[in-house]
């Protein structure tokens, strides 16, 4: 069953290439490359192989038709303006590095020659570093993880902060929360526990199409709280495709929007927990850095603040989909439950490895939620070690996975107790596994780049506060004549549409400290506004490049860009309005009041 996921990886890579080639031409009226998915997307006949640092995709099922020379010949006379625009864009793309480096030099020279605030002489230098880093992040002149190292050079070079202090910001406690989340997510993926959960939920939803849709969406939503959103949607696609292939002709609009609903569910589910998406972890680290005397923002409190919003958005997507394609539609969508029964039978009994991972994840979730005080409950850390945090708790539960043997390597007596048929270790990827997690398997799938972007964002946030830039921008923004709800709505709107084209981690890193400082200066709750930036950075539903789930469902070839853009735009606006109402009026009941906090401060360790 796991081999059925492989074509999705191929399609994802192909779609990234297709989008980058076609987007510029679409802007000038040129048609984008036509992409077709040939054959059965669940056949598993396409396999990616890795060589060095790149990936060579063999036997691709994607056919891309893009003949620029032919377009030049056909449209040279009919559309000279479009050809000129396209030639200009090609020239810009060809000289992209030189253009961005020149702009970076101009920005640096300009801000070194002006004084934004005489009371804060380093603010101008901080603005130069922030804008240059943002420019490199936006244009991806180099990979995001390389740009994340830029503040480590510029801040000391301009005399804003010491390199040793920046290094202490690059990898902090919350980084280990990411590491633990990656470990448990890789264990779930390796042994197919997520596929079993999804198939089991969907198989018990009955014959009504709206319940089947709810089963798909809820299972994806729940899994994406704990493991990678992209991995979650990849495991779902084969089952979704099998169901869609069983439908008679004439349901193309239903098929495309059904896949979109599943992709949106993965994005929405990631909002709910600190390990669901990297931006949530960035918020946790920003809170600890800006207000060090407040202690850790607990796992349970974050969940209480984020879970209702995530659930509201999920119900909104499900109800909107059912309203258009089920309740108001004259066409009946048949449900063939035999498809899901056969998939579940293919998986067989739950294996020993799946049981170990499920037990480990369940215990870890309970420990995360109960570690800190909840009302009259003091939290178990008080009786064990107050110095523990969510990251160290996660590592305490995930590191043993590197010691526990696979079922095939258990002693015969233990195999008999568990069941011989549950201990027949399936060799994923043709390898011979030794443990529940093996380092050779983990190191190739571990998302190292997220840790780099996370560290770079922490340095940017620290430098923006240290230089005085955050305070200067906050003073200017505080004069805006908007009420608290209006300010929250404005922030959510800006962040939502910026994150459509910019990494959500980069967006939060750039805007987080500035918005928190502005909120404090206007007399609003700075933590509440920092959460607004955090949550709105996940409201990315319009474009394929906005997030992994969007690109995966787009790669199926069933969703045209205009369909994703129009449906996503509507959901963006709905998420902004509903999210702003929730964050302004309901979330404070779960969050509590932090209006007493000072402006974000730069915590400098003693070196």
Summarize the structure in words.
- The chain is mainly alpha-helical.
- The protein is built from 28 helices and four strands.
- The chain has helices at residues 6-27, 68-75, 80-94, 96-113, 123-139, 144-147, 150-157, 163-170, 173-190, 193-203, 209-223, 229-245, 252-269, 278-290, 299-327, 338-347, 352-370, 381-384, 390-398, 412-418, 439-445, 448-466, 469-477, 484-498, 504-521, 526-536, 548-554, 561-591, and strands spanning 34-37, 47-51, 54-58, 62-65.
- It has a two-stranded antiparallel sheet. A two-stranded antiparallel ribbon has the order 2-3.
- Strand 2 and strand 3 form a beta hairpin.
- Helix 1 (6-27) crosses helix 27 (548-554) and helix 7 (150-157) packs parallel to helix 22.
- The radius of gyration is 25 Å and the shape is globular.
- It starts with 5 loop residues before the first helix and ends in a 16-residue tail after the last helix.
- Residues 1-78 have low confidence and may be disordered.
Task: Produce a short descriptive summary.
By secondary structure, the chain is mostly helical. The chain has helices at residues 6-27, 68-75, 80-94, 96-113, 123-139, 144-147, 150-157, 163-170, 173-190, 193-203, 209-223, 229-245, 252-269, 278-290, 299-327, 338-347, 352-370, 381-384, 390-398, 412-418, 439-445, 448-466, 469-477, 484-498, 504-521, 526-536, 548-554, 561-591, and strands at residues 34-37, 47-51, 54-58, 62-65. The radius of gyration is 25 Å and the shape is globular.
């Amino acid at each position: 069953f796991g081999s059925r996921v492989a074509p999705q990886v191929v399609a994802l890579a192909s779609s990234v290439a297709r989008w980058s080639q076609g987007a510029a031409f679409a802007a000038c009226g040129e048609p984008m490359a036509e992409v077709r998915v040939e054959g059965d997307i669940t056949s598993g006949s396409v396999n990616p192989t890795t060589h060095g640092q790149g990936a060579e995709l063999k036997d691709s099922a994607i056919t891309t038709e893009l003949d620029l020379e032919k377009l030049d010949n056909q449209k040279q006379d009919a559309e000279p303006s479009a050809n000129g625009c396209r030639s200009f864009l090609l020239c810009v793309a060809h000289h992209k590095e030189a253009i961005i480096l020149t702009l970076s030099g101009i920005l640096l020279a300009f801000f070194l020659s002006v004084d934004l605030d005489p009371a804060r002489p380093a603010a101008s230098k901080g603005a130069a570093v922030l804008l240059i880093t943002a420019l490199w992040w936006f244009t991806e002149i180099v990979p995001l993880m390389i740009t994340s190292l830029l503040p480590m050079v510029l801040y000391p070079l301009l005399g804003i902060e010491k390199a040793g202090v920046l290094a202490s910001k690059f990898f902090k406690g919350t980084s280990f929360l990411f590491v633990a989340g990656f470990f448990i997510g890789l264990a779930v993926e390796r042994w197919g526990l997520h596929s079993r959960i999804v198939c089991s939920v969907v198989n018990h939803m009955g014959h009504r199409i709206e319940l089947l849709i709810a089963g798909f969406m809820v299972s994806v939503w729940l899994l994406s709280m704990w493991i990678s959103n992209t991995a979650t949607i990849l495991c779902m696609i084969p089952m979704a495709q099998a169901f869609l292939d069983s439908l008679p002709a004439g349901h193309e609009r239903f098929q495309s929007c059904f896949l979109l609903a599943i992709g949106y569910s993965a994005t929405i589910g990631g909002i709910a927990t600190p390990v669901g998406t990297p931006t949530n972890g960035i918020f946790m680290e920003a809170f600890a850095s800006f207000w060090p005397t407040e202690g850790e923002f607990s796992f349970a409190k974050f969940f209480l603040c984020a879970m209702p919003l995530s659930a509201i958005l999920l119900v909104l997507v499900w109800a909107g989909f059912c309203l258009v394609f089920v309740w108001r539609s004259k066409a009946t969508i048949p449900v063939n439950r035999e498809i899901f029964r056969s998939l579940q039978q293919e998986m067989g009994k739950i294996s020993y490895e799946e049981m170990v991972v499920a037990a480990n994840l369940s215990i870890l979730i309970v420990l995360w939620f109960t570690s800190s005080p909840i009302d009259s409950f003091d939290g178990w850390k008080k009786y064990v070690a107050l110095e523990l945090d969510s990251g160290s708790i996660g590592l305490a539960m995930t590191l043993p996975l590197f010691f526990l043997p696979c079922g095939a390597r258990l002693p015969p007596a233990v195999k008999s107790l568990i069941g011989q048929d549950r201990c027949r270790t399936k060799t994923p990827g043709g390898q011979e596994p030794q443990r529940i997690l093996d380092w050779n398997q983990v190191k190739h799938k571990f998302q190292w780049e997220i840790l780099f972007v996370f560290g770079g964002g922490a340095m940017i946030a620290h430098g923006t506060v240290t230089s005085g830039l955050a305070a200067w921008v906050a003073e200017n923004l505080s004069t805006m004549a908007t009420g608290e709800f209006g300010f929250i709505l404005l922030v959510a709107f800006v962040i939502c549409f910026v994150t459509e084209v910019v990494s959500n981690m980069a967006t939060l890193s750039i805007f987080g400290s500035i918005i928190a400082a502005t909120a404090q200066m206007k007399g609003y709750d700075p933590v509440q506004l920092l959460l607004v930036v955090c949550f709105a950075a996940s409201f990315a539903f319009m474009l394929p490049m906005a997030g992994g789930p969007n690109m995966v469902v787009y790669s199926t070839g069933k969703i045209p860009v205009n369909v994703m853009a129009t449906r996503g735009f509507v959901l963006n606006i709905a998420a902004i309005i509903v999210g702003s109402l929730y964050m302004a009026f309901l979330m404070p009941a779960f969050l509590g009041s932090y209006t007493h906090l000072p402006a974000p401060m730069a915590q400098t360790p003693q070196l």
